[in-house]
């Protein structure tokens, strides 16, 4: 079987074009979406993201502000910046790039961001709302995967979904969104006994591990949908996913490439959340 390539770049471009029109309209009513991105130190994966996010903001007409802090920044300094951004009503959304350098407390930083400006949807209040199913923001990467699946005409209902990875950022919320769409969801992780066997059961397989090409062809069922969230920069500078693409593509019915799959969808969902935050914060709903 030759797999259909799920073109996240093209789908994200359509979404951003719609958002651009929405932002133009909002500006006529005095609402100006603005995103503040805080980046501490120089994690390479975060850097790609920050660059692409800035370009997407420019395209959509969203103001973007970058706060690049040195790796030696103290917890107190970081929390003071977030407090300032929380109280600045020209800022719609705040995103603090993770992971933070050694010595900084990620949980405290996530908790400090006002839930109404939490465009990553990492704050416990937003996480709780997502679990209950009545939410303002969805986490960007899982939401991007769901939009790409829906745009591709793939129905999740009743399907066996296997998510590899259980991080708070990707794996856990991904599993919850698949469940909301009536998937039968299995979550795998580093203690899973026979990973290949679990994966081979999947109609929809999502890899969010951070291990280059961990998922080989023998982990993929004939006709499965394979979603590769992984973004791994190899020593030769090549970017590869968590899935061995060509092996998996031989068996899959549909598969996302890296780059050009989930990454661009994540950015589009961040833009969507920022526009939503601008609207919510202007109507005093929060
Ligand atoms: N495209 C995008 O938009 C984004 C991409 N990413 C990428 O997605 C990947 C995952 O990110 P993130 O969730 O933050 O990663 P984490 O490191 O936080 O979590 C990785 C998860 O994978 C599990 N795991 C690790 N090794 C194995 C293994 N050998 N077998 C089975 N499970 C394993 C871990 O299990 P355990 O819990 O037991 O330790 C953990 O649950 C990375 O490549 C990251 O760069 C991340 C965010 C956005
Ligand atoms: N608070 C926080 N929120 C995040 O969502 C977050 C984060 N921290 N830290 C880092 C990870 C990683 N991440 C990426 C998203 C998109 C691309 C992306 O645009 N990828 C493109 C381009 C890749 C390239 O060309 O190098 C693609 O896959 O096609 C990359 C990486 C978000 N993350
Ligand atoms: Mg992580």
TrEMBL record:
Q: Which residues form the Tetrahydrofolate dehydrogenase/cyclohydrolase catalytic domain?
A: 6-120
GO biological process terms, semicolon-separated: L-histidine biosynthetic process; methionine biosynthetic process; purine nucleotide biosynthetic process; tetrahydrofolate interconversion
For this UniProt record, the keywords arranged alphabetically read as follows:
Amino-acid biosynthesis, Histidine biosynthesis, Hydrolase, Methionine biosynthesis, Multifunctional enzyme, NADP, One-carbon metabolism, Oxidoreductase, Purine biosynthesis
Q: How does it assemble?
A: Homodimer.
- What is the protein name stated in its UniProt record? Bifunctional protein FolD
Q: Which residues form the Tetrahydrofolate dehydrogenase/cyclohydrolase NAD(P)-binding domain?
A: 139-279
InterPro entries in the cross-refs: Aminoacid_DH-like_N_sf (IPR046346), NAD(P)-bd_dom_sf (IPR036291), THF_DH/CycHdrlase (IPR000672), THF_DH/CycHdrlase_cat_dom (IPR020630), THF_DH/CycHdrlase_CS (IPR020867), THF_DH/CycHdrlase_NAD-bd_dom (IPR020631)
The answer to whether the entry has keyword NADP is: yes
Q: Which PANTHER family match?
A: C-1-TETRAHYDROFOLATE SYNTHASE, CYTOPLASMIC, C-1-TETRAHYDROFOLATE SYNTHASE, CYTOPLASMIC-RELATED
> Which first-to-last residue range defines the signal peptide?
none
Q: What role does this protein play?
A: Catalyzes the oxidation of 5,10-methylenetetrahydrofolate to 5,10-methenyltetrahydrofolate and then the hydrolysis of 5,10-methenyltetrahydrofolate to 10-formyltetrahydrofolate.
List the Gene Ontology MF annotations in alphabetical order.
methenyltetrahydrofolate cyclohydrolase activity; methylenetetrahydrofolate dehydrogenase (NADP+) activity
Q: What Pfam families does the annotation carry?
A: THF_DHG_CYH (PF00763), THF_DHG_CYH_C (PF02882)
Q: Which domain of life is it from?
A: Bacteria
